[in-house]
Amino acid sequence: MKALLKKNGKVSLESIPKPKSYSDNDVLIEVKTAGLCRTDIYVAEGKVKSIDPLILGHEFAGIIQEIGKNVSNLRSGNRVTVNPQIPCSKCHICTSGKTAYCQNTSFLGIHLQGAFAEYATVPASAVHLLPENVDFKMGAYTEPIAASLAVLKANIAPHETGLIYGDNRISQLTHKILKAYGFEDVTIYDAASDRELKPDYYDFIIETLVTSEALNAMLQALRPGGKIILKSRQHQPVALNVNQILKKEPIFHAVNYGSFEEALYLMASGQIDLDDILGEEFELEDFETVFSAAKQGESRKLFFRF
Predict the structure, then answer these.
(1) Which stretch of DSSP H or E encloses residue 144?
(2) CATH dotted code for 148-254
(3) N or C: which end of the chain has fewer CB within 10 A?
(4) So what CATH class is 2-140+274-305?
(5) Which of these, 192, 196, 200, 191, lies nearest to 161 by C-alpha position?
(6) Residue range 140-181, pLDDT digits in tens
(7) 127: CB partners within 8 A, 6+ apart
(8) How many whole angstroms separate alpha carbon 57 and alpha carbon 84?
(9) Which residues, in sequence order, are bridge partners of residue 120?
(10) Cα 235 vs. chain centroid, distance in angstroms?
(11) Shortest CA distance to 66 belongs to which of 19, 132, 100?
């Protein structure tokens, strides 16, 4: 099968064997569409440590081809998408039923073989059925929607004044989701602009690409006792001005994922319009062009089709 493989620090399109073996709890999926995320680029560039060799990619949708003998809730032919964060299922958190909070997770396209290939093997527990009116491109975008939905776990309210720090594709998506849930007073702030933020003003601020400079700017704009919602997957340490934090007494609320089922419902019901976010589909052979275009800007999501 065709696969985009990172090996010895280099990324290339390779022909590798189709997965032949998998556990009794796994499914084999024929990948139909896969989205390119900035995390994939960071992994490809070596900015995020990963296994080697590695099939890149973690946002995808496809059709189940085979199921393990212990899988009873899925069948061959199901159209599906996948949560790429895989809990260990062994720790005391997982065995207590709170797998969403597992601290020993593995991630597709980083610690496990990913989805930029014609086939992918994943645990059945990570699989979600696509509604009939959700196509494969939308299905491949379920993971970013679930990640953006997580901000609602921070107990923010529609009547509050909010700010999304950073003007990028994820901030636009998060704004659409908040609007769908009745939030009207939320502004997107472009950190590259000359516009100054009002000090001590916002009830909550959602970061979409965190740096030390950005966090300190958010703290200045946040009202005393307000919330800073951490949601981007920053793999590098950031510095904080502790004295500034003490004076503001902010609440830092880190969020991971919201519900994948809820994300699929939002798309199926038409409550969010993704036409200005979802971009073109390309052949896997064009990966160098696609990676280059994604680095230049994040206005539209780019995809690989299979």
Answers:
(1) helix 142-149
(2) 3.40.50.720
(3) N
(4) alpha beta
(5) 200
(6) 999 999 999 999 999 999 999 999 999 999 999 999 999 999
(7) 27, 29, 64, 74, 78, 80, 81, 82
(8) 9
(9) 29
(10) 14
(11) 19
